[in-house]
């Protein structure tokens, strides 16, 4: 049997503790986990692609049981998975609303390539409400985000909010 390669795609803007939980658990299922950082035209990222790549690389360094590779991609997910030799796409689920969307995407990906399976991992119960979009919104309005993202990421988000001078409290405190 060959090397089991999994793909975990996302925008990771910013990477959250929920993402980190899925990454850690996915490494137990594959020999190599390729984290694909992408752009989503329907989202306005707080961080550039290069910043998100660096963030995810830093936070996943030495994490989990499998080799982890963090790369950018800008293509159909199934094409990206094929190009990396993946047999598994890992998707995290937080709620029923996630499942409906992810179920449809898994079905479409299966139609495009039946050799690549989609595996759903439920987020840890304590981490299920965390979403990057909500983390950014909380930070912009001066809320505490230290329970939702790694400490270094919280500092980066705080700095970005302050530098952008966005609505909310520019003196956002990062506490752990």
**Structural Rg:** 16 Å
Order of strands across the main sheet: 3-2-1-4-5
- Percent in helix: 25-40%
Order of helices and strands: EHEHEHEHEHH
Q: Please mark out the parts with pLDDT under 50 across 5 or more consecutive residues, or reply none.
A: 169-176
Largest sheet: 5 strands, parallel
Secondary structure tally, helices: 6
Mean pLDDT over the full residue set: 90
Structural class: alpha/beta
Distance linking N and C termini: 44 Å
Q: Tally of extended strands?
A: 5
Described by the principal axes of the CA atoms, the overall outline is globular
Strand content: 15-25%
General description of the model:
- This protein has helices at residues 17-26, 49-60, 77-83, 96-112, 132-140, 151-164, and strands spanning 5-10, 32-37, 67-72, 88-93, 117-122.
- It is α/β, with parallel strands linked by helices and 176 residues long.
- It has a 5-stranded parallel sheet with strand order 3-2-1-4-5, with helices on both faces.
- Strand 1, helix 1 (17-26) and strand 2 (32-37) form a beta-alpha-beta unit.
- The longest helix is centred in the middle third of the chain and has 17 residues, at 96-112.
- It is globular and about 50 Å long.
- It starts with a strand and ends in a 12-residue tail after the last helix.
- The model is unreliable at 169-176 (pLDDT under 50).
Key words describing this protein structure:
176 residues, alpha/beta, 5-stranded parallel sheet, disordered C terminus
Short summary of the structure?
This protein has 176 residues and is α/β, with parallel strands linked by helices. The protein has helices at residues 17-26, 49-60, 77-83, 96-112, 132-140, 151-164, and strands spanning 5-10, 32-37, 67-72, 88-93, 117-122.
């Amino acid at each position: 049997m060959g090397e089991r390669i999994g793909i975990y795609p996302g925008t990771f803007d910013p990477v959250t503790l929920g993402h980190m939980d899925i990454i850690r658990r996915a490494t137990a299922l594959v020999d190599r986990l390729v984290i694909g950082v992408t752009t989503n035209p329907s989202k306005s990222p707080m961080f550039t692609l290069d910043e998100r790549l660096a963030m995810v690389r830093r936070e996943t360094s030495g994490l989990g049981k499998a080799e982890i590779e963090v790369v950018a991609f800008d293509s159909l997910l199934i094409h990206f998975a094929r190009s990396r030799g993946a047999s598994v796409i890992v998707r995290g689920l937080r709620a029923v609303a996630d499942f409906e969307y992810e179920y449809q995407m898994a079905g479409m990906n299966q139609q495009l390539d039946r050799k690549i399976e989609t595996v759903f991992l439920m987020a840890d119960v304590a981490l299920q409400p965390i979403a990057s979009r909500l983390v950014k919104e909380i930070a912009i309005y001066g809320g505490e985000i230290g329970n939702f993202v790694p400490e270094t990421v919280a500092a980066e988000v705080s700095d970005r909010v302050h530098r952008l001078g966005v609505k909310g409290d520019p003196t956002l405190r990062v506490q752990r």
